[in-house]
Amino acid sequence: MPRARRRFGQHFLTDPRLLARIADSLAAGPDDTVLEVGPGHGGLTAALTERAGRLVAIEKDRDLVPALRERFPRATIVEADALETDWHALAGPRFLVAGNIPYNITSPLLDKALEHPLPERIVFLVQKEVADRVTARAGEPAYGALSVGVQSLTRAERLFTVPAGAFQPRPKVDSAVLRLTPLERPLVSPAEQGSFRRLVVGLFGFRRKQLARGLRELTGWEPVRVVALLGRLGVQAAARPEVLSPEAFAALLRKRGLGYPVPELADRLRQILGLKQRYQVGMIGAGKIGSALVQYRGFRQRGFDIVAIFDRDPAKIGRQWNGLTIQDIETLEAEFAKRPLDMAVLVTPADVAQPVTDRLIKLGVKAILNFAPVQLVVPDDVVVKTVNLALELETLSYALANR
Question: Which of 19, 158, 239, 337 could disulfide-link to 131, CB 3.0 to 4.6 Å?
């Protein structure tokens, strides 16, 4: 049996009782199609095939695919990256989703699962902390932008905890089973989701500020107008964003029609976030994406000046890129001592992204643009924007194919 691969974030669950409980949570029947993300050794796959009429499983690890196909001849085993695959093309218009999903791509997979049109039901085994955040209610410590985003579209339930000791290899944290059921009447429409996400993320960016002040800074509205708006929503001006329910955020989104169009709101958000100031940027990774970014004029036009490039490849160190010399990543701390940087662009392989991030945080970097295919763990005061190019291209391809 192939060993778990760290770069895929694999932690296999083998307890048949727990696997049966997860499968039962999906409530699949003979007329249902189930799409499983990351079947691994097939523990959950076996439980799902006993319940569902049709099973489609997407497995990225090519070493696991032959055994899965041999063991489950009636199932469709697809060797692919679930983030880069059109789920509807594989499973059809109506299907359920299940999976013991890798910790390092939990957020992108949640985003993928919640793309319109949504599956009929989703059951994921995730980190307990993620399940807590997704299901948290307004006012609870774990409540945040993730809670609001998911709950605006689904009814989120944390069903039960799976201890770390139940997995091989054993992870550092416990997991939990998360069930998401699409709302009959979502709080926001597909056309509103982009604006809604910007509003929610923007206000939670002012988490330590009173809601009235955060809304004023985000929109540029006069204080009287902001207080009046919050009053109509039944919210005190001195409250914090975390007391607003998903329904209140949706109502707030629609109140923008009081004279502040979405394009102006987005422009105001850019101003508040400082995108019209000048920032010193260091790039970690001198690959093809890095080369394109260095030459991208939009960086400088938006206030980001790339002033340093680092890499670990001896063949690249010392070469010139747009007038900049590629430096050894081992000199990172010494270079920061000479010239502190405001932001880092991370274009590294997934296996080194987190260690490099930890070094950057110790050096005081407060913003990271991440192109590595991994979810980074950072303190609350560090802003991370992850760009999944493969997923964006897949989404674009799907949109073109379904015009």
Answer: 158
